[in-house]
Write a structure and sequence with these properties.
The complex is a heterodimer. By secondary structure, chain A is an all-alpha fold. Helix content of chain A is 79%, strand content 2%. Chain A contains 15 helices and two strands. A two-stranded antiparallel sheet of chain A has the order 1-2. In chain A, α11 packs parallel to α13. By secondary structure, chain B is mostly helical. Chain B folds into three domains: 2-273, ABC transporter involved in vitamin B12 uptake, BtuC; 278-352, Orthogonal Bundle (Arc Repressor Mutant, subunit A), CATH 1.10.10; 356-430, Arc Repressor Mutant, subunit A. Helices cover 72% and strands 2% of the residues of chain B. Chain B has helices spanning 10-34, 38-47, 49-58, 64-88, 93-114, 122-127, 135-164, 166-171, 176-198, 203-217, 221-245, 251-269, 275-304, 314-321, 325-337, 354-377, 386-392, 398-407, 423-430, and strands spanning 312-313, 341-343, 349-352. In chain B, a hairpin with a 5-residue loop joins β2 and β3. In chain B, α2 (38-47) packs across α4 (64-88), α2 (38-47) packs antiparallel against α10 (203-217) and α11 crosses α12 (251-269). The chains are: A mainly alpha, B mainly alpha.
């Protein structure tokens, strides 16, 4: 039994610590913006952005030729904003609804990215589709290291520490604005917080974080990091501050659990972290203090009384016609 | 029997596959767009991954039917869990879809990374490769597409009713739960079929974009189905031909971009719901409102002078409207063009023609009637009614006016004490200027 618990440390040594730290640092900023996306019912806008940043990355990479260049983040941020603007243009100006607008704009941009990748860059670059899917988290230990505080620290960890710090500082600065505008846009607007500005600022932040996490976990698993921690925390708490703290805890637990799955079963590290996060969410769904199914069964009351009566009313009125 | 239809060349197969897909997904996409579950397709397409991996691992001869069934099962479980999450928690549809999409996808990748030998073909499913489609795949696509067409043909009406209003459908006695089940079943099937050709991410495009374009073009459901199918097939052909010609580019993205281009064109030029048509309509409306406001101002100046003079000078009009003289002259020119005013010989003043009088009186009457209605019947304060009346005066039709007059018992004065003009009497020779 103890063998299993110490296995990662036996196999990877200090590397196990770096992997956990990296997974946590990637997930942390995602979880914090993701919590607000969930409250604002924009979880799928996060999904859309994580796909749409792709052409921006490709174009920026074409001009710089360097995967670590900060221009990649600028390109990605712009592409993310373009997708948000496209979504607004489609669903505000026509009768096509928001979900369809999201679907149209992110698929178009993603397809554009793939076509650009194939035509402009050819096949001989390491910005390949495999990386879109799997992420490079597992390759962390092969990256360059820099000496820091007497330790050889893998370079991506330093970058992600920066991203996490910036995100948390921004969150703390704009906490009140975000809180207010997420729950009551009208009230926020009356305080002088411009809704459009907040919306686009938030979308830019999401694009920025998505790009930072993009290389580590791939475009599709980023969605998981954005949504799972916030959703799990949402099922456990009614208070925003608690929710944010729980989301961070979720990141830490899934980083540790992900490493164990990765080592025990020899699986892809990034996906293992997400699977562990999904298991935690499942636990929150079953046992969570607020929305846990188990407590509801014990209490033996209808889960959503409004829903049920609502259904009945609809049925009656439909019959009476 | 179906083998006769299958072309022997690779390019022919690719194009046939793209056409079948376009047709099937185009049909189903209409329901998806109308039900506002556009991103359900996205969630299902990601959620099938564990199924695909299981199919690849456990089927010894990689039989497409087995893989297909495993994938469809995973997709259905995913769709079911989305509904369960939404029903039992406070999470909204967007979060539920995102959770299922990402968790299932990660599960698939974890499983796949453990069995990399057996699952080489999984990349074809993830990014789509029409080149990898062989005769047996095509046969299955034909079967599912025809099944889809038949089901949509027979279930069109009930499915449509359920899409718009579940409660109403229940009232009509339709088995709503079964219909929803059938719908999600068909959706999962067509997503799985489309996966091989266009890949996980772009399945949503072929499902949503043609249908959304068709939705902007027509208000009839049958037409929408046909148009959406047509757009889907067209995008499929374009994608198939281009990516067969340029081997570098994968099919999925080209099909997606073709569909997006169609949507882009429709977005601007659609006759009723297009952006350009809407812009034209609004600007026409705005011109009419500006013209009518000028007309009303002329009447009000005349009224203030007790209808003593026939002419109103352009300068006075500019003062009344608080606009520059040039702006007012432009409006007056537009009034002249419509035969509502005539300029005096020196051009510094103008007077209303007979149709101009009629319209001006109508506008003032509409305005004052509405003000009276708001104060008397809706208990508005007197000083709160003007802005509302300012808008509605341009829209009220003769029937509405008659109703208002009856409701208010043919009033003569508005709440501010000004007389409500009576165009129908005035036109019978009782104009203020009938006696010069």
């Amino acid at each position: 039994m103890m063998d299993y618990l110490t296995l990662p440390w036996d196999v990877l040594g200090i590397g196990a610590f770096w992997l956990i730290l990296m997974a946590f640092l990637v997930a942390l900023p995602c979880s914090q913006v993701g919590s607000f996306l969930i409250l604002r019912r924009m979880a799928l806008t996060g999904d859309a952005i994580s796909h749409s940043v792709f052409p921006g990355v490709v174009v920026a990479f074409y001009f710089t030729g360097d995967l670590a260049s900060p221009w990649l983040i600028v390109g990605a941020g712009l592409a993310g904003l373009i997708s948000t603007v496209l979504i607004e243009l489609i669903h505000k100006r026509t009768r096509v609804k928001q979900d369809a607008a999201i679907g149209i704009s992110f698929t178009s941009l993603f397809a554009l990215g793939v076509v650009l990748l194939e035509t402009m860059l050819g096949k001989n670059v390491d910005l390949d589709l495999e990386c879109v899917l799997h992420g490079r988290l597992g390759l962390l230990l092969e990256d360059e290291t820099l000496p820091l505080l007497g330790q050889m620290v893998p370079q991506p960890i330093i970058v992600m520490t920066g991203v996490s710090l910036v995100t948390i500082v921004l969150m703390a600065l704009f906490y009140r604005v975000l809180l207010l505008s997420s729950f009551d846009t009208g009230l926020a607007a009356s305080y002088g917080y411009r809704p459009a500005l907040i919306h686009y600022g938030m979308m830019f932040a999401v694009s920025f974080i998505v790009v930072a996490a993009f290389q580590a976990v791939g475009a599709i698993l980023v969605i998981a990091l954005l949504i799972l921690p916030g959703a799990a925390a949402y099922l456990c708490s009614h208070r925003l501050k608690t929710m944010l703290a729980l989301a961070a805890l979720h990141c830490l637990l899934s980083a540790v659990g992900g490493l164990y799955i990765h080592v025990w079963f020899d699986t892809n590290m990034a996906a293992s972290v997400v699977v562990c996060g999904a298991v935690l969410l499942l636990l929150a769904w079953l046992l969570g203090p607020v929305d846990g199914l188990l407590w509801k069964w014990f209490k033996d009351e209808p889960e959503h009384p409004d829903n049920e009566t609502g259904d009945k009313i609809v049925t009656h009125s439909a019959c009476s016609h | 029997m179906l083998d006769v239809l299958i072309p022997s060349s690779g390019a022919g197969k690719a194009i046939l596959a793209a056409i079948l897909l376009g047709a099937g997904c185009g049909l189903l996409g209409c329901f998806v767009v109308l039900r506002r579950v556009a991103l359900m397709g996205d969630a299902i397409s990601h959620a099938v991954l564990p199924g695909v991996v299981a199919g690849l691992i456990y089927s010894p001869d990689r039989s497409p039917i087995f893989i297909f069934l495993c994938a469809a099962a995973a997709g259905l479980v995913g769709a079911g869990l989305v509904r369960a999450l939404m029903a039992t928690t406070r999470l909204k549809s967007d979060a539920a879809l995102g959770i299922i999409l990402a968790s299932f996808f990660a599960l698939g990748i974890v499983w796949q990374s453990r069995n990399q030998q057996e699952t080489v073909g999984v990349m074809n499913f993830l990014f789509g490769n029409v080149g990898s489609i062989d005769s047996s795949d095509l046969r299955m696509m034909m079967m599912t597409t025809s099944l889809l067409c038949v089901m949509v043909f027979f279930l069109k009406r009930p499915l449509l009713v359920v899409s718009f209003d579940e409660g109403f459908a229940r009232g009509l006695g339709y088995p709503v739960k079964i219909l929803n089940g059938v719908f999600y079943f068909m959706l999962t099937f067509s997503v799985v079929v489309a996966l091989q050709a266009v890949g996980v991410v772009l399945v949503s495009a072929i499902l949503i974009t043609p249908a959304a374009a068709a939705y902007l073009l027509t208000d009839r459901f049958e037409k929408m189905l046909l148009l959406s199918m047509g757009f889907g097939i067209f995008a499929g052909i374009v994608g198939g031909v281009i990516s067969a010609g340029i081997s570098q580019i994968p099919t999925g993205p080209v099909i997606t971009l073709a569909a997006s281009a169609i949507f882009g064109v429709v977005y601007f030029v659609a006759p009723r719901h297009g952006v350009l048509a809407k812009l034209l309509r609004t600007s026409k409306r705005r011109r009419i409102v500006m013209r009518e406001n000028t007309l009303k101002a002329i009447y009000q100046i005349q009224e203030a002078e007790g209808f003593a003079y026939e002419d109103v000078s352009v300068i006075m009009l500019a003062q009344k409207r608080r606009q520059t003289e040039e702006a007012v002259r432009k409006r007056c020119a537009s009034l002249l063009k419509h035969g509502l005013v005539e300029f005096s010989e020196d051009g510094i003043s103008l007077h209303l023609t007979s149709p101009g009088w009629k319209r001006a009186m109508e506008l003032v009457r509409n305005h004052r009637l509405w003000e009276l209605y708001l104060t008397n019947e809706a208990d508005y304060a007197e000083d709160h009614v003007h802005d509302d009346a300012e808008k509605i005066e341009h829209i009220l039709g003769p029937n509405m006016v008659r109703q208002l007059e009856q409701e208010l018992d043919f009033p003569e004065l508005d709440p501010h004490g000004k007389p409500i003009p009576q165009p129908q009497l005035a036109m019978q020779g009782l104009e203020p200027f009938s006696t010069p």
